[in-house]
Design goal:
The protein is an all-alpha fold. Helices cover about 70% and strands about 0% of the residues. Helix 1 runs antiparallel to helix 7 (about 205-230) and helix 3 (about 90-110) runs antiparallel to helix 5.
Length: about 270
């Protein structure tokens, strides 16, 4: 392996680590709403929208808007890095693009908070029905819908990629179960939202939506761990389905060259 090829391999490995770390961080930030267990929000987690925690009239609204913004930007950066640096196949490109949409829409969503809490405040619900709330309510509904479309698309597409291409073993193993659970939670949430908008109660809307969001965060964490364990899925490496072949002297030498290049790069950084 030439020195330039070894350098490219080092950059690819570093890109994998960046994607892994960004996805893990986004999964953590996206579950910031669990703080309502220990913080007094005044909202019933079983009945209220998660986004109502970030409403403008809520005392901790600024905190939850900030964590949503951070989560969205981290997902967007991770998906963008994956699209630029990791191996490109049709299912994976579509999946990373969907994940980028999820990140972007989540970040935008955090900048379009509700002005009040319709599931907890009857007056707010009445104003919303009458169209007397700020336009951000409608904009928030659109950005939230786009975020969920992107998230579900990514969950399905990248799970299919993991199984179809023999990548990311943890995701290939647990992804299908998470896909089914996510679709069930989404169906629950949509049914509860429809019931609420029809004036038939909330149908434990909050529990359904929180389950939906928690499953996305768990899936992000599984994806992050899977990508981190599979640095070979990047330019310059063999098809992972061929990795089962017996190690050749050339393959061993290539690996050693990559490791040597990494050490040289680390020494340069230390020397600075």
């Amino acid at each position: 392996m030439s020195s330039s090829a070894a350098a490219r391999s080092v950059r690819a490995v570093r890109a994998v680590r960046v994607v892994r770390d960004l996805l893990l961080f986004s999964a953590l930030a996206y579950t910031a709403w669990v703080l309502e267990v220990v913080l007094s929000t005044g909202l019933d987690p079983v009945q209220t929208y998660v986004s109502e925690l970030a409403a403008e009239d809520q005392p901790l609204g600024g905190l939850f808007r900030a964590t949503d913004l951070v989560a969205g930007l981290a997902v967007l950066a991770g998906a963008g890095t994956a699209l630029r640096c990791l191996e490109r196949r049709p299912w994976s490109v579509a999946g990373w693009a969907a994940l980028a949409l999820f990140g972007l829409a989540t970040a935008v969503d955090s900048r379009l908070p509700l002005s009040c809490t319709p599931t907890a405040d009857p007056e707010c619900a009445a104003r919303e029905t009458a169209g007397l709330v700020p336009a951000t309510h409608t904009a928030h509904a659109i950005s939230s819908s786009l975020a969920m479309v992107g998230a579900i698309g990514a969950v399905v597409l990248l799970t299919v990629a993991a199984r179809r291409y023999g990548w990311w073993r943890p995701l290939a193993r647990y992804g299908p179960w998470l896909v089914v659970a996510e679709l069930l939670a989404t169906t629950w949430s949509l049914a509860a939202i429809a019931a609420f908008e029809a004036g038939r109660g909330t149908w434990t809307l909050g529990a359904g939506q929180r389950s939906q969001i928690l499953l996305i965060a768990v899936w992000l964490a599984v994806l992050a761990v899977s990508v981190g364990r599979s640095p070979g899925h990047s330019p310059g490496r063999a098809d992972p389905r061929l990795e089962k072949e017996t190690e050749t002297p050339e393959r061993v030498e290539s690996v050693e060259n990559v490791e040597t290049a990494e050490k040289v790069e680390e020494k340069k950084v230390e020397g600075r």
